[in-house]
């Protein structure tokens, strides 16, 4: 496994792989790898000849009061995990390499970011779309795999790839969960043991919502009220949003008439967790 920090070297490696007629799968991450990332790497490994993982904690997707400095990092462990997962190259640029002096170009979408996480994290999706564009241009993959836990991010990337004709196949990987249902996330590392137990309330509320829909409940307000009750039973929990929306547009739905995305962002203490489930009537 090669570890590449220089973007010209990464681009040259990809070019050489392409010239050999081989296909490239790409899993972009911010590191601190967990089972969720491993499932994306496994998918990539099965689809293409050459597997690239990027690890870059992208400063432009964090707001001024967010956890950029505290974001968990463990390069040595990540490299070991990547090697075991059959990664061919890890691209690990630094800030200077990605955003040099006088950097001034950003990629922004017009609709999808103005929902869900984008409302409380106004620069987030501009930062994600920008860094993913740059990573795609450097790595030049045939296929890229992103987790469905970040449903809105996946929607933004699919839209961007379509609008800007990237010609890259985007694949969503199912959310990987802890035994109690908590979605795997690098940010789970911030939780105290007590908060870690309480965090299972998100998954519990998603399942309760599905049960209500299966029993014939159509009112989004009733479903969301039950979810709030379950989540707010956790001491110190604060709901950023609990929404039912159209999975394609992310517009709110008031009555369930087809598959509806239930999306949650909840702060447990200082840790903001997200999760989602497409509810099927
Ligand atoms: O999902 C993530 O880890 C990040 O948002 C991504 C896609 C690697 C961009 O920085």
From TrEMBL:
Top-level enzyme category: ligase
Gene3D superfamilies, per database record: HUPs (3.40.50.620), Pantoate-beta-alanine ligase, C-terminal domain (3.30.1300.10)
The keyword Acetylation is assigned to this record: no
The enzyme's E.C. designation: 6.3.2.1
Catalytically driven reaction(s): (R)-pantoate + beta-alanine + ATP = (R)-pantothenate + AMP + diphosphate + H(+)
Binding site for beta-alanine: 61
Principal location listed in the UniProt entry: cytoplasm
Record function comment: Catalyzes the condensation of pantoate with beta-alanine in an ATP-dependent reaction via a pantoyl-adenylate intermediate.
Misc note: The reaction proceeds by a bi uni uni bi ping pong mechanism.
Stored HAMAP family: PanC
Protein name, as recorded: Pantothenate synthetase
Organism: Desulfatibacillum alkenivorans DSM 16219
Lineage, opening ranks: Bacteria, Pseudomonadati, Thermodesulfobacteriota, Desulfobacteria, Desulfobacterales
Gene name of this polypeptide: panC
């Amino acid at each position: 496994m090669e570890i590449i920090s220089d973007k010209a070297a990464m681009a040259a490696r990809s070019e050489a792989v392409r010239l050999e007629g081989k296909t490239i799968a790409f899993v972009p991450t911010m590191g601190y790898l967990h089972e969720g990332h491993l499932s994306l790497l496994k998918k990539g490994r099965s689809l293409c000849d050459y597997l690239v993982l990027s690890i870059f904690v992208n400063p432009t997707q964090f707001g001024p009061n967010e956890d950029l400095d505290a974001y968990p990092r463990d390069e040595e462990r990540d490299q070991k995990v990547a090697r075991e997962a059959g990664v061919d190259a890890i691209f690990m640029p630094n800030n200077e390499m990605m955003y040099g002096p006088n950097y001034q170009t950003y990629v922004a979408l017009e609709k999808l970011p103005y929902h869900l996480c984008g409302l409380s994290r106004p620069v987030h999706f501009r930062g994600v779309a920008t860094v993913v564009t740059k990573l795609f241009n450097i790595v030049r993959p045939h296929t890229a795999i992103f987790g469905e836990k970040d449903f809105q991010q996946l929607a933004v990337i699919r839209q961007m790839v379509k609008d800007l004709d990237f010609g890259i196949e985007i694949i969503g990987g199912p959310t990987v969960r802890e035994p109690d249902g908590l979605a795997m996330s690098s940010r789970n590392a911030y939780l105290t043991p007590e908060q870690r137990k309480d965090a299972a309330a998100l998954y519990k509320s998603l399942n309760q919502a599905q049960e209500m829909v299966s029993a014939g409940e159509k009112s989004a307000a009733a479903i969301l009220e039950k979810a709030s009750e379950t989540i707010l039973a956790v001491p110190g929990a604060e709901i950023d949003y609990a929404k039912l929306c159209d999975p394609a547009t992310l517009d709110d739905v008031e009555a369930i008439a087809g598959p509806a995305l239930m999306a949650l962002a909840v702060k447990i203490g200082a840790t903001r967790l997200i999760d989602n489930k497409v509810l099927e009537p």
